[in-house]
Write a structure and sequence with these properties.
Elements lengths: L1 E3 L3 E4 L8 H10 L5 E3 L6 E9 L2 E9 L1 E5 L8 E6 L5 E4 L2 E3 L6 E5 L5 E5 L3 E8 L1 H4 L12 E3 L4 H14 L7 H18 L4 H26 L8 H7 L4 H9 L5 H18 L8 H7 L5 H12 L3 H15 L1
Antiparallel strand pairs: 1-2, 2-4, 3-6, 4-5, 5-12, 6-11, 7-10, 7-12, 8-9, 8-11, 10-13
Helix pairs in contact: 3-4, 3-5, 4-5, 6-7
Length: about 325
Amino acid sequence: MIHQSQSFRFTTDSVPAPERVDAVRKLRDRGIIPIEPLPNRPVHVDVAKWFLPGLGILSGTLSGVRQVGTPQAENDDLLFGINVTGPGVVVQRGREVMPVGGDAFLMNIAAGAFAVSRPRRGQFFGLRVPRRAIAPLVRGLADDRLRLIPRTTDTVTLLVSYLRGLLGGRLLTAPESARLVVTHVHDLIALSLGASGEAAALAEDRSIGAARLQAIKSDIVANLEDERLSIGTIAVRHGVTSRYVHRLFEREGITYTQFVLRQRLERVYRVLRDPRFDASTISSIVFDAGFGDLSYFNRVFKLHYRCTPSEVRKLDALSTTDRT
């Protein structure tokens, strides 16, 4: 089914296996996603698409399909694809590259018809950006040859972390944040392509710190249950120093410790308000959010929300009763 928001999502998981080939062809015929089934391959599609001014993002997992494209008049957008996991085969104008997990590729859509085949399941990001946004930052973009960017390129790894954090949050739906997102993605693509000199310095200054901070925040939120989630552990995981992590948070007027505490409090609050967890004890919810001391939690929770965890639960139970 397709879920409408500012973009859309499509998955074959809710489509019976015998009908998936036809479902994928309908997507192509309706001009939604230009993909077609590969012969004699099980088809799997689970993708989401976002449209921002100066940036199109296609993300998800594919298997047994091929993405196809043809040049369009007055459109010289660039396609920057990342094979997060799994293999792929990319062909344009007789040139072929075979990205594997962690590799990226670049093509100019206006340079000729292309095909991106994914015979086996893999996760990917496809970023469509205006050539004019990247050209001032990278020399050699006049060369329209299909390029492979190897997985050893650190900025590609950082771009993946940044995108994962974005797609798991709300930044793409807030106009003021979306403009920053587009700039950051443009800069990270340019750095992945070898931007140098003043252009590289500008891109790094604008976007590297923001991308690292977003990746670090996403890592923290994904691992809140780890009571020993120290700044040292996070720094090592992201290949930076603890002092550097401190500085990233200081730019936003918050400390690492304050951010972690706020995220844990918000998680507990959300779970307390969720009827699905009515059978869970408050203490188990607290410990699952990474708190190691119940009395400390009770103190900071009441300070933050001006009520106790039990009162939050009672209020939610009363509002549920009123609705019924």
